[in-house]
Specification:
alpha/beta; nine-stranded mixed sheet; 14 strands; 31% helix; 27% strand
Length: 342
């Protein structure tokens, strides 16, 4: 494990709780902080030297939880040393760097996995099952709100801090034929922080559907809600409601085509509203990072790409770059080619 700061301790705890993994090292420039994370009774070694970790033949995999600006050099060194790598989001600050890491991992036959944590929650796994299984019909829209009184980051704006969650979830749950093709973003900095603290992101999909995400560091109220509207049903995900995180509504709008109506019926409105039952699937309570670690170990053991592999991380970074260009251009629509989302 590399990094004992904000996110590293969570990864340490879940790695130690995953039977298929054994934690050998915790590497951090602040060795005292690393020792404090591990506690007094541990067999895990502490070091400030990443080279020492890479030179240890007992280490088969590395997890990186450091600032995004350091990801490229650390991940590249680990891959070149023959180690599988799990890396915190975003994969890198640029798509050029991300593409190089993906290519290196594939040439080396190594697992490169992104810690897109929400994709491993029972709620999002269920949403993926419902969407890709056709339960809601064709996706017509996605509307997401992720706002709270959060930590204003010193190195990235709110888009790069929070939107990776929503973009990685979209990448994970949408069917393969619903690919982002263009984005438009608007950001504002009402507190003069020097970077956008509030942002709105629109994403056009190849199917004609529109997805929208609102991210905000300044809201006194915490909201984490996503609505995925389909031609048959609509999914509502409220991550802050443990008793009803996911609900499936048989409610929507139907369109009767004029050609299918009689002469008299054509005088009536072509739009009809459908109001049916609401289904609340039973979901287990399970820590998402436990699922991340289990998937990392399983992908290594099977020699297969992880569910949120390097290519998924690359697609998210390409969208973030396009959103940044759009915001700088006053919200201009930016075409994007993210590649295949399989």
């Amino acid at each position: 494990m590399v990094g004992a700061g904000y996110w590293g301790p969570n990864l340490v705890r879940n790695a130690q709780a995953t039977p298929a993994l054994r934690l050998e090292w915790l590497c951090d420039l602040d060795e005292e902080r690393a020792r404090a994370v591990l506690g007094g009774y541990t067999t895990v070694r502490v070091t400030g030297s990443f080279e020492a970790v890479l030179n240890d033949p007992a280490v088969g995999a590395v997890a990186v939880a450091t600032p995004a600006a350091t990801h490229f050099d650390l991940v590249r060194a680990a891959l070149e040393a023959g180690k599988h790598v799990l890396v915190e989001k975003p994969l890198t600050p640029s798509s050029g760097e991300a593409a190089k890491l993906v290519a290196l991992a594939e040439r080396s036959g190594l697992v490169l996995m992104c810690d897109h944590t929400y994709c491993y929650t029972p709620a999002v796994r269920k949403i993926r099952e419902l969407v890709r299984g056709g339960e809601i019909g064709e996706v017509q829209f996605v509307d997401s709100v992720r706002i709270n009184l959060g930590l204003v980051q010193p190195d990235v704006d709110v888009l790069w801090d929070l939107a990776p969650h929503d973009l990685s979830i979209l990448d994970f749950v949408l069917p393969p034929d619903a690919r982002p093709v263009a984005v438009s973003a608007h950001g504002s900095d009402p507190i003069d922080a020097g970077r956008s603290c509030v942002a709105y992101l629109s994403i056009w999909l190849s199917t004609g559907a529109l997805a929208h995400a609102h991210v905000n560091w300044l809201s006194p109220t915490k909201i984490r809600t996503t609505v995925i509207g389909g031609s048959r049903r609509t999914i509502v995900w409220d991550d802050l409601n443990p008793s009803q995180r996911v609900s499936v509504h048989d409610r929507g709008v139907d369109l009767a085509y004029a050609g299918s109506l009689g002469r008299e019926e054509r005088r009536e409105a072509l739009i009809s509203y459908r109001v049916g039952d609401v289904l609340v699937p039973a979901l287990p309570e399970q820590e998402a990072l436990r699922g991340v670690m289990a998937e990392f170990a399983a992908a290594i053991a099977a020699g297969r790409p992880a569910l949120t592999d390097g290519r998924a991380g690359l697609r998210v970074v390409r969208l973030l770059e396009a959103a940044t260009r759009s915001a700088a251009a006053g919200g201009a629509r930016e075409t994007v080619d993210i590649g295949e989302n399989e």
